[in-house]
Amino acid sequence: MNRILLPNYFKRIGLIFFLIGFLPSFARGFIDGFTGQYNPDDVLPYGIDVILKSISYIGITFYFLAKEKVFDELFQQLRSDAIHTTFVISAMVMTIVSIGQIKVKWSVDWVIMLQMATFLIIFYFKKKSVLPTED
User: Fold this and answer.
1) Can you give the pTM of this predicted structure?
2) How far apart (Å, rounded) are the C-alpha atoms in residues 25 and 23?
3) Sequence-distant (≥ 6) Cβ neighbours of residue 10 within 8 angstroms
């Protein structure tokens, strides 16, 4: 099966894009939480905020799709396992939310970002568990 994976240097590009898009949004949320007031146009106008979110999503997607420096069958299996585990966790959370009739205010972009973050965390720990440690 052919998978579309970007070269390894896209990890750095993706991280830079993510930080460019994430930091202004984080700063706005921090300021709103600190002051106790919410005004979305205080720091960034709506159009700029949408552009920064898009840059952040593109960055996390680049990071998500970038190959490892050494990409062999083991890493393909770890990546597949992490995707599978992320899907199962997402399905369980959505089932619990719908069965429990829990009211959540998640937008689609937050769900996708949470899934990508969950994948990256799971993949990181799976890699750590099989790679030899330096002692």
Assistant:
1) 0.63
2) 5
3) 62, 63, 65, 66
